[in-house]
Design brief:
4-stranded antiparallel β-sheet; single chain; globular
Length: 216
Amino acid sequence: KLNTDSANTADKTIVFSTPGATVMIAFLDYPAAPAEIGTAARISWLWKNADEALRHQSQVVISVIGKSNKTLDLYQTFTKTVAAVLENTNSCGVHIGGQYLLLSKGFYTAAARNMLDNQTIPLYCWVYFGMTQENDLHSGYTFGLQEFGLKEMEIVNSKQSMADVHATLYDAALTVLKYDTHLQDGQSLTTLEGQKFTVKISKAAFQEGETLKLEY
């Protein structure tokens, strides 16, 4: 379901236009940097056998260019393109270095189909969710919301369960991304699931810069 026109094919490269974007697909006959893949594999909780990605011998690099104020649309085009490449090659998965994401072929293509069929936002394909535990306290953080011009989010040292912290963080991140909500310090947020928070902006606990803190 990716409408294309003005396609140009050269040696190992395809460039085409689609409404609102220009897409380039390039085949590189050598693997991605092992250190980058290894780092992503170690923290990839959505792909339990992510180490198999270290055996890849070549790569396909996909670039999507368009208006900066249409980032969500561009990511949807990117997801369609990636899924199409996955379904037509022997690729084992997807690596998005900027978000530390390493996702399996099956997971990514299923998320892309769901995006098309049910108009969902495939958040796990775009944003990394990190979870940590210290004693009986659980924390979580996002990495990738900055791609959409939004501040990253954190829940720090919550007494709630790991699963609840994760679900709450996911709900909040999905809400701000869907509605392009740019929160300021002290503002309130009502999530898609009806939870209400007063957010605070402060120094990040798990990454650089400042993040939106949710008290939970």
